[in-house]
Design goal:
CATH class of the largest domain: Alpha Beta
CATH architecture of the largest domain: 3-Layer(aba) Sandwich
Number of helices: 13
CATH topology of the largest domain: Aspartate Aminotransferase, domain 2
Shape: globular
Largest sheet: 7 strands, mixed
Distance between the termini: 64 Å
Radius of gyration: 26 Å
Strand order of the largest sheet: 2-8-7-6-5-3-4
Number of domains: 2
Structural class: alpha/beta
CATH superfamily of the largest domain: Type I PLP-dependent aspartate aminotransferase-like (Major domain)
Length: about 450
């Protein structure tokens, strides 16, 4: 019996299709796939169910998950639960934006092109750099592109990063770098302060170093104190200085453009985008105003122009260096699209916040982070934070002195309706039984108090 939704399912139609392309069976279509990796027989699937039954079953399965809406969450480290103003959903959800894909035809995509132009402009102001592209996939892919861009410009094949780097970012970076022969070198950081050792850095920097990458705030939440010195070391070696940032910090921290960053990358998810299941994210990518840098930038740029008489404005793509638009050997990247809707949401968020809003947000985040680290450090045996100095949003919690395993502590927290931090021991064994916790403006003082009380009771058992 043929399927009512598949028009080519009946046997007589299949026979006509096979005869037309000159094969005897559907299996021949897959003849180039080795037999050892093909299923010998059809998988055992359950019988079809009605739409209502399928929906009910899916909801049952999904209800097993514990989300940040079901529990008090202190997870962060790259994807954070920030407040999304209602206006972002209202505007980004309009059909003119929501159904737009990527604006290939400027004459019919003026609204989306203008939105991306505004995103670029506001992000450039926030970072205090000259040129921002209209987004990449996420922070990790932006870092990978920055390494490749650095190698193309300097014609060198080494890229130096701090060793206490997000394992996900590092894995993606290596996936971008290894196939074209870029060697990733890790420079050690102090286990007391988290700062990059200048002596160790000078040993790692070489005539083959294409770029030095630094994050501020760092992956583990601490601030880097000597970014100007790091920039100077990179430039003295003829390398590019690449900086990774959390944009929510830039209302209170010095933006990377002020300390001579050549390339800036980061994660735009906190700007009007939800956590969801870890995506979609928004890769920030920017550079200073240098023709060589701009020409080697991946992705694309949206520009503003006018008619000859200057009376009307128009928006268009002014730089598209991907392989679909130009000769493959001239392309800087094979990125096939951008996260246009996520960039739009970020543009709306930045416009709503303004400079004063970013300042107040940054001050609150510093305040709630400081309150959290000071309070949690009072729990017997717990070391918070592991590194000396100021932290922003993310901070480390070490359980080595408690007599309890951090993973067991996390299970007890979950029983109390609290999602604790993420374990770091597997990726950074030198940190011991340490977890990465995070707070945002979504956390109140009472939320932190609840975490403190829960930890204190767990330690008493």
């Amino acid at each position: 019996m043929s399927h009512p939704y598949l028009s080519n399912d009946p046997a007589d139609i299949q026979r006509k299709l096979l005869d037309a392309i000159g094969i005897s069976s559907v299996d021949e279509v897959f003849s180039d796939i080795p037999k050892q990796v093909r299923l010998a027989k059809s998988p055992s699937l359950p019988k079809p169910k009605s739409e209502a039954k399928v929906r009910r079953e899916m909801e049952r399965i999904l209800s097993i998950n514990v989300t940040s809406k079901d529990a008090l969450s202190f997870l962060g480290g790259g994807v954070w639960g920030h407040h999304v103003p209602a206006a972002v959903d209202a505007l980004a959800g309009r059909g003119e934006f929501l159904t737009s894909y990527t604006p290939y035809q400027p004459e019919i995509s003026q609204g989306m092109l203008q939105s991306l132009f505004e995103y670029q402009s506001m992000m450039a102001e926030l970072l205090e750099v000259d040129v921002v592209n209209s987004s990449l996939y996420d922070w990790a892919s932006a870092l990978g592109e920055a390494a490749r861009m650095s190698a193309r410009i300097t014609r060198r094949n080494e890229f130096v990063v701090p060793h206490l780097l997000s394992p996900e970012r590092l894995a993606v970076l290596k996936s971008y770098a290894n196939p074209i022969g870029i060697r990733i070198k890790e420079v050690r950081q102090s286990l007391q302060t988290g700062q990059i050792s200048l002596d160790a850095l000078k040993e790692e920097i070489s005539p083959q170093t294409a770029g030095l990458y630094v994050e501020n705030p760092a992956y583990l939440g601490h601030l880097v104190h000597n970014v100007e010195v790091l920039a100077e070391i990179a430039h003295d070696a003829g390398s590019l200085f690449v900086v990774g940032v959390d944009p929510t910090s830039l209302g209170v921290l010095k933006p990377p453009g002020r300390y001579d960053a050549d390339i800036v990358v980061g994660e735009g998810q906190p700007l009007g985008n939800y956590v969801n299941y870890g995506g979609p994210l928004l890769g920030i990518f920017a550079c200073r105003n240098d023709p060589q840098l701009i020409r080697q930038m991946p992705g694309r740029l949206v520009g503003l122009t006018t008619t000859k008489d200057g009376e009307e404005q128009g928006y268009c793509m002014v730089l598209q260096t991907r392989e679909q638009h130009i000769r493959r050997e001239k392309a800087t990247s094979n990125i096939c699209t951008n996260h246009a809707l996520s960039a739009l949401r970020a543009a709306i968020y930045m416009a709503l916040m303004g400079g004063e809003g970013f300042r107040r947000l940054g001050e609150h985040l510093f305040s709630i982070t400081r309150y959290s680290t000071q309070l949690l450090s009072k729990v017997d045996g717990v070391k918070v934070p592991v590194f000396q100095g100021c932290h922003f949003k993310d901070f480390t919690v070490n359980f080595d002195g408690t007599g309890k395993k951090g993973i067991e502590v996390s299970k007890h927290l979950l029983e109390r309706g609290i999602l604790g931090g993420q374990p770091l021991g597997k990726d950074f064994p030198e940190l011991g039984d340490t977890f990465l916790y995070s707070v945002t403006e979504m956390h109140s003082q009472g939320d932190v108090d609840a975490l403190y009380e829960a930890l204190k009771k767990i330690m008493e058992v």
